[in-house]
C-alpha cells in the first residue's frame, strides 16, 4: 500500500554519455572492453543464489570475431530447472511479504550502481557478445536499463495509490498481490535492458521468477545477475537457467505453479508457448498471465510533401542501427515516385559513409549480426534478390563470415509490394523500397496495413496535416508504436511505452504501469466499522 508521507525519487531519463575522443568514459569503456575481450569468463546458472556449474558448456564468441572465445556458459539438465522452480516457490513467501518500499529500494539501488560502477562493464559485455557499437550499447545496456528500474518503481507507487472510494462507515481498499506461483521470463539477445526488465518487472511486484536469457546474451546476463546481487536482491527471487529451450519450457509449463510468461522473441515461438499453456490449462492453480513482444516488419510510409533528406536519414538510422536487429527496425519503405530520386541520392550518400567492423573501433556504425544462422538466412534473401527480376539492389549486397558475421547495409528496390523482403522478417540490415505513384497514396496506405501480419512499429512522413491525420487513421492497427516524421525505432522508457499487437505481441507496453499490472492479482477488502444487527431494510416497513 502506498503511504501519503512516502515519495520515491522522481524518475528522470538517464543522460546518454557521448564517448567522444579523449573523454574519460571512452577511455574507461575501451579499457574494460579490452580486459573482458581477453578474459575467459565462466558463466554459471544461478539457482537460489548459488552458482551452478554442470560442466555441460557452450562457448561465448563475439559475433564480429567468431573464432575468438571469451568464455563459456553452463547449461541445464531437467533437474536444474526443477530445482529453479522449487527454490523460487520456496522464496516466494518471504519475498511477497517484503514491503513494496523495500523492493523498490533494491531496484533503485541497481539503477544507481549501473549508472556508476557497473556502466562500463555492462556496456562492454554487450559490445563483445552482442556486437553493439558504443552508442547502441550505451542507450540500451546502460540508459534504458536504468530507466526501466527507476520508472517501474514510480509506476508501482502510482498503481498502489489507485484506491476505490468508500461510503460512510465503510473502508474499501485494494491490495496489489503478486501472482500465486512463479513467473517464467524468456529474454532475447538484442537488448540487454529487455533481458533485465523481463524478470525485474515481475520481481518488483513481489513475484519470483525462473529466467531463461538468450544463449547469445549470456555474458551481459551474468553482469545483470552480479548487479542484482550487489543491489540486495534476495536469493531465489530470480533464478537463471541456460540450455535447451524446449526442455526448459516443457519443464516450466508442466508445473501447476506456473502463473505467468514474460516473453520477448519470435512470433512462432510465442504462439507455440501459448498453445502449450492452453493445452496444460487444467494443470494450473491459476490462469497464467501471458505477456509477449514478438516480431515486426516495421514500415516507413512517405507522402510527397515530405523532406527527402529527413526521409533518407530516418531510413538509414531506422534500418541499419544495430544491424537491423531491433524489433522496431525499419525494413520496408514506401516512397512516392516524385521524391524517390532525391531520397535515393541522399540514401546512397549516407550509406557510403557507414563503416563496418568490430565495436572496439568506435568509428564503426555497423557491426556483426548475432550468429551464423541469422547470417545465412539474411544472405540467402540478399542473394535471391540479386537474381530476381522483381528486385534491384542499389546499396550493399555483400556479406562475409570468414572473421565475423558481417552483412553490408543493403537496400533493395522492388517493383512488387509483396516481394519476399517486403513481407518477411529478416532481423538484419536490409531495407526494401517500393516506389508508388504519387496519386496512389491512399491505396498505398492500404498496402502498408495489409501486407504483413505484424503490428509493432511504423512511421509516416508528411508536412501536410490533413495527410498526417488521414494516414494515422488508416494505419491505426498497423503499429502499436506509431511515429510521425521520425524513424520507427528508439522508444524511450517513460516517453514511448513499447509494444504492438497483431502478430507482434500482446501490446502490454514495456516501460509502463500497464505492464506492471499484469504481474499483480488484485484483492479488494471492504471493512465495515459498525456492522448491522437487523436484517430488515426500510422498505419492509
From TrEMBL:
UniProt cross-references to Pfam families, sorted A to Z: Aldedh (PF00171)
Key words of the record: NAD, Oxidoreductase, Proline metabolism
Lineage: Bacteria, Pseudomonadati, Bacteroidota, Flavobacteriia, Flavobacteriales
Signal peptide (from-to): none
Catalytic reaction equation(s): L-glutamate 5-semialdehyde + NAD(+) + H2O = L-glutamate + NADH + 2 H(+)
Protein name: L-glutamate gamma-semialdehyde dehydrogenase
Family as reported in the entry's similarity comment: Belongs to the aldehyde dehydrogenase family.
Plastid listed as a keyword: no
Amino acid at each position: 500500500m502506498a503511504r501519503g508521507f512516502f515519495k520515491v525519487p522522481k524518475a528522470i531519463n538517464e543522460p546518454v554519455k557521448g564517448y567522444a575522443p579523449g573523454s574519460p568514459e571512452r577511455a574507461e569503456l575501451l579499457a574494460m572492453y579490452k580486459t573482458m575481450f581477453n578474459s575467459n569468463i565462466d558463466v554459471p546458472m544461478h539457482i537460489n543464489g548459488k552458482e551452478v556449474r554442470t560442466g555441460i558448456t557452450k562457448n561465448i564468441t563475439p559475433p564480429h570475431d567468431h573464432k575468438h572465445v571469451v568464455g563459456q556458459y553452463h547449461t541445464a539438465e531437467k533437474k536444474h530447472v526443477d530445482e529453479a522452480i522449487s527454490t523460487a516457490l520456496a522464496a516466494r513467501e518471504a519475498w511477497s511479504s517484503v514491503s513494496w518500499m523495500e523492493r523498490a529500494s533494491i531496484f533503485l539501488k541497481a539503477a544507481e550502481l549501473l549508472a556508476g560502477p557497473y556502466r562500463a562493464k555492462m556496456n562492454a559485455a554487450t559490445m563483445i557478445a552482442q556486437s553493439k557499437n558504443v552508442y547502441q550499447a550505451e542507450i540500451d545496456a546502460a540508459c534504458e536499463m536504468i530507466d526501466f528500474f527507476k520508472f517501474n518503481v514510480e509506476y508501482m507507487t502510482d498503481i498502489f495509490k489507485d484506491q476505490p472510494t468508500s461510503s460512510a462507515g465503510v473502508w474499501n481498499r485494494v491490495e496489489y498481490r503478486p501472482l500465486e506461483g512463479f513467473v517464467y521470463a524468456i529474454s532475447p539477445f538484442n537488448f540487454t535492458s529487455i533481458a533485465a526488465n523481463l524478470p525485474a518487472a515481475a520481481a518488483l511486484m513481489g513475484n519470483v521468477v525462473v529466467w531463461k536469457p538468450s544463449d547469445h546474451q549470456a555474458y551481459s546476463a551474468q553482469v545483470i545477475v552480479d548487479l542484482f546481487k550487489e543491489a540486495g536482491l534476495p536469493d531465489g527471487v530470480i533464478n537463471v537457467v541456460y540450455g535447451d529451450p524446449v526442455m526448459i519450457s516443457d519443464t516450466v509449463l508442466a508445473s501447476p505453479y506456473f502463473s505467468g510468461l514474460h516473453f520477448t522473441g519470435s512470433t512462432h515461438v510465442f504462439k507455440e508457448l501459448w498453445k502449450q499453456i492452453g493445452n496444460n490449462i487444467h494443470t494450473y492453480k491459476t490462469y497464467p498471465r501471458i505477456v509477449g513482444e514478438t516480431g515486426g516488419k516495421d514500415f516507413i510510409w512517405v507522402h510527397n510533401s515530405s523532406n527527402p533528406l529527413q526521409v533518407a536519414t530516418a531510413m538509414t538510422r531506422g534500418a541499419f542501427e544495430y544491424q537491423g536487429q531491433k524489433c522496431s527496425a525499419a525494413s520496408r519503405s514506401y516512397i512516392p515516385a516524385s521524391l524517390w530520386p532525391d531520397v535515393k541520392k541522399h540514401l546512397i550518400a549516407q550509406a557510403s559513409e557507414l563503416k563496418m567492423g568490430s565495436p572496439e573501433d568506435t568509428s564503426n556504425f555497423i557491426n556483426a549480426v548475432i550468429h551464423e544462422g541469422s547470417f545465412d538466412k539474411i544472405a540467402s534473401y540478399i542473394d535471391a534478390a540479386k537474381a530476381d527480376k522483381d528486385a534491384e539492389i542499389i546499396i550493399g549486397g555483400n556479406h562475409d563470415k570468414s572473421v565475423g558475421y558481417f552483412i553490408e547495409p543493403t537496400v533493395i528496390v522492388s517493383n512488387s509490394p509483396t516481394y519476399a523482403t517486403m513481407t518477411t522478417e529478416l532481423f538484419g540490415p536490409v531495407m526494401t523500397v517500393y516506389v508508388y505513384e504519387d496519386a496512389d497514396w491512399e491505396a498505398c496506405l492500404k498496402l502498408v496495413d495489409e501486407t504483413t501480419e505484424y503490428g509493432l512499429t511504423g512511421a509516416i512522413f508528411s508536412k501536410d496535416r490533413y495527410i498526417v491525420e488521414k494516414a494515422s487513421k488508416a494505419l491505426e492497427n498497423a503499429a502499436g508504436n506509431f511515429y510521425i516524421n521520425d524513424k520507427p525505432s528508439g522508444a524511450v522508457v517513460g516517453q514511448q511505452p513499447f509494444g504492438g499487437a497483431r502478430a507482434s505481441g500482446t501490446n502490454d507496453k514495456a516501460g509502463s504501469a500497464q505492464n506492471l499490472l499484469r504481474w499483480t492479482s488484485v484483492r479488494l477488502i471492504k471493512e465495515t466499522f459498525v456492522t448491522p444487527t437487523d436484517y430488515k431494510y426500510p422498505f419492509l416497513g
